[in-house]
Each structure stands twice: as C-alpha cells, then as structure tokens.
Amino acid sequence: MDSGGLAELDGRITECRACPRLVDWREEVARTKRAAFADQTYWGRPVPGFGPADASLLIVGLAPAAHGANRTGRMFTGDRSGDVLYEAMYDVGLASRGTAVSADDGLTLYGVRITSPVRCAPPANKPTPTERDTCRPWLVRELELLRPSLRAVVVLGAFGWQALLPALAGAGWAVPRPRPVFGHGVRVVIGSGPAARTPGGSTPVDPTLADPAPAISAPAISAPADSAPNVSAPNVSAPADSIDLFGCFHVSQRNTFTGRLTPAMLRDVLSTAARAAGLPTRAYGG
C-alpha cells in the first residue's frame, strides 16, 4: 500500500474548493456554529477518509454532517450517526472504542477505512448530482490506492451505493450490468477484470428497497482544475482478486430512531463484511 500516496491525497482533499455551494455552506456553518459547540473551532473544510492505508474493508457513507465531521474533521465523528456506527464497529472488533468525539480522541480502526463520496457538508444533507460527480475523482483515487489490500466494501445508504458503483468502475473494477440495486443486506461480488457481468453470487434484492435514481455512468478521472479535483490515475495492474460489496441502511437518525436499522442489523452486516475481508471479529450479544 502506498501510504504516502494516501496521505498526500487526504491533504489535497482538504484544500478542495470545487463546489461553490458546498464551500459556502461548510464555511457558514463553521462561522455560526451550533450553540452547544460555540466554544469550539470548526474544521469547516472537506473531510478526508479515516483509517489505515492497508485497509481490507472500506465503509462508504454519504457526506460529512454539518456539526459532526464538518466540526471535528474526521469521518462520522461528533454526531449521533457516528455514535451508532462506531459502537457497532467496536462491538464486532473493528474499532478500539465505541465512541468518536474528536479527531484526537485516540480512536483506532482495525483493518477498516471510512470514507464518503461527497467530502463537504451539504445543506440539508443533500448533495446535488453535480456535486456528487464533481467529487468522484477523489473517491476513485482513494479506491485505486486501497486496491492492493481492499477485499470488501460496506455502503451505508442508497446515495452512497449509487455514487460508489461508477467510482469502482473508474478505479478498474468490473461493475455488473445491469448495475446491482441497493438494499439492506444485499451482497454482490465485483470482479477485477474489464468485462462486467452479473455474478452468480448476487443476492436478490427486494425491489421496494431500490434507489429510485437511475444508474449513472462512470466519468473521466480528471477534470479542469477550476471546476473539479484533478486526480491522476496510477500505473497499476489489476489484481486477480474481486471484492464483496455489501448494502446497509444508513446510520441516520431517521433510520435508527424508527428502528429501520437496529444495532443488531448493523452489527450483522459489519461482521459478515469483516469476515469477507479476512478480518478477525469477536462475538457480541444481542
């Protein structure tokens, strides 16, 4: 794993100003703050991925929360969604602790990296399709750098699923066509060769759980410097291994408060994905 390359990428991500609406919003939130955090200095910039450079499991969210990662500067840190996610990761043995308060709280992830397809906090937690696509080269490059070690991916929510598939294609994986539909608990094998096909191991998905948005095609990796991040592709040969892609309902308060996603459901997906990635897990109750 090119840890220097990933660290360099993370640094470049934090300087991105490609989406004016997102720049204005993240910085406005950082100035006005929430009353509970009035004495804190907000991060107010794009948020890079979090976790080791040789991670074999990747967790993909949606975008930073305005008063969560946009405040703390670390994925899923400082908000209730992160509390749910990290508690479940700790329960199955993927994190050193079950809480995430600040970027310097000592939290360590074991074989797991967390990222998102949009790096800036969006108004109402809703990035536009253009913002999603503008941000995609960062995710493509991150996937390329993780590729030698990556064996499984958990996607939290339909937005992340729709955003990840073209990024995987851009990073050289053979995404099946028709593209697999999001659903909680769905598992799809994504091959490493150039020819996409629907793998025999795909799990049928309840059509009521499908993302209504149409599948989107993979764009070019680079774009003009004044409109999108320019992220070059490395000269690497495709590995022989495929990856397992898992769908999971997002850890949003709407899902967790209503019981659509329970801690047990989240732990089950994480532990199954961890085993697929070759990571050790521990038993948990409930």
Integer average pLDDT: 86
Shape category: globular
Number of DSSP strand runs? 5
Helix content: 25-40%
Uncertain segments are 195-228, 231-240
Rounded to the nearest angstrom, the radius of gyration is 18 Å
Overall structural class, as computed from helix and strand content, comes to: alpha/beta
Q: In angstroms, what separates the terminal alpha carbons? A: 36 Å
Question: Could you please describe the fold and organization of this structure?
Answer:
With 286 residues, the chain is of the alpha/beta class. 32% of the residues lie in helices and 8% in strands. α1 (3-13) packs antiparallel against α5 (129-146), α4 (80-92) packs across α8 (263-276) and α5 packs across α6 (158-170). The protein is globular, with a radius of gyration of 18 Å. Mean pLDDT is 86; it is low at 195-228 and 231-240.
Give me the secondary-structure topology.
Elements: H1 3-13, H2 20-32, E1 57-60, H3 69-72, H4 80-92, E2 112-115, H5 129-146, E3 152-156, H6 158-170, E4 187-190, E5 243-248, H7 253-258, H8 263-276
Parallel strand pairs: 1-2, 1-3, 3-5
Antiparallel strand pairs: 4-5
Keywords:
286 residues; alpha/beta; 5-stranded mixed β-sheet
What's the quick description here?
With 286 residues, the chain is α/β, with parallel strands linked by helices. It has helices spanning 3-13, 20-32, 69-72, 80-92, 129-146, 158-170, 253-258, 263-276, and strands spanning 57-60, 112-115, 152-156, 187-190, 243-248. It is built from 8 helices and 5 strands.
